[in-house]
Amino acid sequence: MWKVAMSEEVGKALQSVVERVNQAAARRPKALPAVSPRLVAVSKTKPPDMVVEAYRQGQRNFGENYVNELVDKASDPLILDSCPEIKWHFIGHLQKNNVNKLLGVPNLFLVETIDSMKLADKVNSSWQRVRGASTQRLKVMLQINTSGEQSKHGLPPEETVSTVRHIVSQCSALHFSGLMTIGRYGYDLTLGPNPDFQMLLSRRQELCDNLKIPLEEVELSMGMSTDFEHAIEVGATNVRVGSIIFGNREYPNSAANTPNPSPVPSPEKSSKMVSEEAAKKMQHLTVSEH
User: Fold this and answer.
1) Per-residue pLDDT tens for 259-289?
2) Do the Cβ atoms of 112 and 141 come closer than 8 Å?
3) DSSP SS3 for 239
4) Most exposed: 12, 54, 79, 120, by fewest CB within 10 Å?
């Protein structure tokens, strides 16, 4: 009975999010590139069974924040057997000593959190060794710290162009796919469009102008459970949604399980406490084309 109930809950929640993604995309200004948003289901702390249920409902892109958890989950026999077309996104901070472990993950699709030239070089050289004679390039995004918060990882916005230029010209095993940001948690959308998202949009424009790259070829990964609709409305092509699909995350022996946990640096952890009702209030926000 538990599995039946879980299947129904995940299925209904996923269908609801997919509908909201499509509705948000339909509200986007026509001036934005007509790129269908990709939904990344963030399965952090959730068991393989729940990933399989979402996969059975048609979901293919899944995200994880921690290398060890991604390695364990992606290598789980149940997922390997039941989800042959799964696409794993790594969306957490990547340390150089974990690069080789990450790149060995089955069905690794995209690393969203490259935040320095040195890390790009490390991932590039490691991917060449891992894939051997294969010519398949690894998709990567550049993480930008748009909020300027010290608790956030990411490259300073002003280094965007030079770092992408380095990846494109010096990292032959990598395919630059776009820009990613986490942004400041808890921004009040009644004040207007999220400035972190606007920052990423402006950096993409600057990047495309300088390197002569078409806008539609540079993805924007921004928006999570609390603000993914607004992110899509202003131009996100990749949104990372977890708790409203899989339910509140479970952190054993952690204050994150208490009704009113102390603030923590990670917005991914914090966002689990925000209800779907709060997210719905943002749904009808009018967004300027500028």
Assistant:
1) 333 333 344 444 434 334 444 444 444 343 4
2) yes
3) strand
4) 12
Question: 176, 191, 223: which is closest to 28 by C-alpha?
Answer: 223
Are residues 256 and 218 in contact, defined by beta-carbon separation less than 8 angstroms?
no
Q: Give the distance from CA 79 to its chain's centroid.
A: 20
Query: Which stretches of the chain are assigned E, i.e. beta strand?
Result: 38-42, 61-64, 87-90, 108-114, 138-143, 174-180, 219-221, 238-241
Place of tokens 């070829």: 217
The CA–CA distances, whole Å, from 274 to 74, 96, 229, 268 equal: 28, 33, 15, 11
- Residue 65 gets which letter from DSSP? S
Q: Model-level pTM greater than 0.90? A: no
Give the residue from 185, 186, 169, 168 showing the smallest Cα distance to 177: 168
Contact between 160 and 220 under an 8 Å Cβ cutoff? The reply is no
